[in-house]
Amino acid sequence: MDIAGVSMALARVSDQSQIGTAVLKKAMDTNVSLGEGMVQMLDAAAMELSVNPEIGANFDVRI
Q1: Domain assignment of residue 30, yes or no
Q2: Residue 48 contacts by C-beta under 8 Å, 6 or more apart in sequence?
Q3: In-domain check, residue 39
Q4: What are the tens digits of pLDDT across the range 8-55?
Q5: Which of 43, 46, 48, 59 is the most exposed place for a label (fewest CB within 10 A)?
Q6: Is residue 11 situated within a structural domain?
Q7: Which residues touch 49 (CB under 8 Å, ≥6 apart)?
Q8: How many domains, in total, are found in the chain?
Q9: What are φ and ψ of residue 6, in 5° steps?
Q10: pLDDT of residue 56
Q11: What is the torsional sign of CA 16, 19, 21, 27?
Q12: How far is it, in rounded angstroms, from Cα 50 to Cα 47?
């Protein structure tokens, strides 16, 4: 059995695992920031409706 080869293979697997974890963490951070942005947009829309509740409630359609 080649001990050096096994050791190198385990090190490579470890590196790949660490890279995969780092990429997943970056994706999760991106999703968190996008979610926070969506919450802020929804809060802004709710604030507009509380100030002007009639805006957007009615619209005219002509065919």
Answers
A1: yes
A2: 55
A3: yes
A4: 888 899 889 999 999 999 999 999 999 998 888 887 777 766 666 676
A5: 59
A6: no
A7: 55, 56
A8: 1
A9: -65, -40
A10: 67
A11: negative
A12: 5
